[in-house]
Amino acid sequence: MTRAYENSNPLRCPVRLYEKYIALRPKNGTVDAFYLRPKKIPCSDVWYCDSPVGIHTIQSTVKRLCQSAGIIGYFTNHSLRATAATRLYQAGVDEQLMTEKTGHRSNAVRAYKRTSDAQQASVSSVLHSGSKKHKLEELVDTSPSKFKQECCVNEETSDKEHKELREICP
């Protein structure tokens, strides 16, 4: 179970989308499944049959959506969970909240913590700056201007470091 909260964009608000989905299900349905099979010809007030979507249909959903959007690669429903964990980590969300949101019951969520180039540049800046005090906001700030500042070099920077910085800094 997860909690979702309303947001200001009605087209992407999970609460409004959930309410709409529930409203378009059969009123006196007998099936306990959450995902129902869509009708071939939906009525104005009922879009779904009183039968569950097949397991193979659910398993192939993300793959099918990615293909139709022209996104190349190997994607599964689990890719959504991994992407959510990575985005939460990069936004500085606490690990406990990450596990609650993604449904992990152990520290397995750590496997999905993928650092961004901006985070790597911030860490590099801390290590190379000589300054002992850095605010947490500076370490997770991924704005383009901040990222560019963190990519500065000094005369002690090696040729290899210059090359690496040129690769990640425009």
Textual characterization of the structure:
- This protein is mainly alpha-helical and 170 residues long.
- The chain is built from nine helices and two strands.
- It has helices at residues 14-23, 55-59, 61-68, 77-90, 95-102, 117-129, 136-140, 144-150, 159-168, and strands at residues 36-38, 48-52.
- It has a two-stranded antiparallel ribbon.
- It is elongated and about 65 Å long.
- The two termini are 43 Å apart.
- 5% of the residues are buried.
- Residues 6-66 form the ZMYM2-like/QRICH1 C-terminal domain.
- One of its GO terms (molecular function) is DNA binding.
- Keywords: DNA recombination, Isopeptide bond, Phosphoprotein, Ubl conjugation.
- This is ZMYM2-like/QRICH1 C-terminal domain-containing protein.
